[in-house]
Write a structure and sequence with these properties.
By secondary structure, the protein is of the alpha+beta class. It has one domain. The protein is built from seven helices and five strands, in the order ααβαββαααβαβ. It has a five-stranded antiparallel beta sheet. Strand 2 and strand 3 form a beta hairpin. The radius of gyration is 18 Å and the shape is globular.
Length: 225
């Protein structure tokens, strides 16, 4: 399957996850995740996949500040969508780098935009529902991340079991990172919190997230060359 084919199919599935019927939305998200995993497992069996040159791209996005939800959303993208995420300052602005194969980078950018807006919306609804203070944000976001992490990991394991294969680290991506970015800060995946109620609520809500079509989001950070 070509780059254009995989991106088009994932976009179509992500768009379907906007269904008002919860079961349909969840099924569409699961199919998108499964498609990406199947594509990676299939590519692992293709001759030449282990070559370590010419297949990795980088995309950089600038934003004026680092937002609370960034570390949780970017950690999800980094863990589950076959890219490496890095942080760096560029001319006084915060820069997020996506590094990976072209189709993976494109999909990762869509997912990041959607999840950013979803995290902010769900926390607003949580505060309205419970009267919790804004200081509960860290715990709630960590719970969202854990809930969605578990869901995506289960989906990947189901596909691996179905195909009797296991996703391995991309050799081209590993070589590119080692050669070009050995000293660049990668995304952090750990944080400690004390608000147990917000954490548990976040875990529950995170498990319900259906990844939507984030293409064309007006809140997406700008890209630089």
């Amino acid at each position: 399957m070509s780059h254009d084919d995989i991106v088009a199919k994932v976009k179509k599935l992500l768009a379907l996850s906007d269904s008002p019927v919860e079961a349909e939305a969840k099924a569409a998200m699961a199919k998108a995740q499964a498609l990406m995993t199947r594509h990676r497992l299939t590519m692992q069996q293709v001759e030449g996949y282990t070559d370590t040159d010419g297949s990795i791209i980088e995309r950089r996005q600038l934003q004026r500040r680092v937002y609370t939800e960034d570390k949780y959303v970017l950690a999800i993208v980094d863990t589950h969508f076959f890219v490496e995420i890095m942080h760096q300052n560029v001319d006084g602005e915060h820069c997020v780098w996506y590094v990976g194969r072209e189709s993976d980078v494109e999909v990762a950018c869509y997912i990041r935009g959607f999840l950013t807006e979803t995290f902010k919306r769900l926390f607003k609804e949580y505060r309205h529902r419970t009267g919790s203070p804004v200081t509960a944000r860290q715990a709630y976001y960590l719970g969202l991340k854990r809930g969605l992490d578990d869901k995506l990991q289960r989906e990947r394991m189901d596909v691996e079991q179905e195909m009797a294969l296991v996703v391995v680290d991309d050799p081209a991506l590993k070589a590119h990172m080692a050669e070009n970015h050995g000293d660049v800060e990668t995304v952090s995946k750990t944080v400690s919190v004390a608000d147990g109620h917000a954490l548990r609520s976040g875990e529950h809500d995170g498990a319900q997230i259906s990844i939507n079509d984030a293409v064309g989001s007006s809140n997406a950070p700008k890209e630089i060359a």
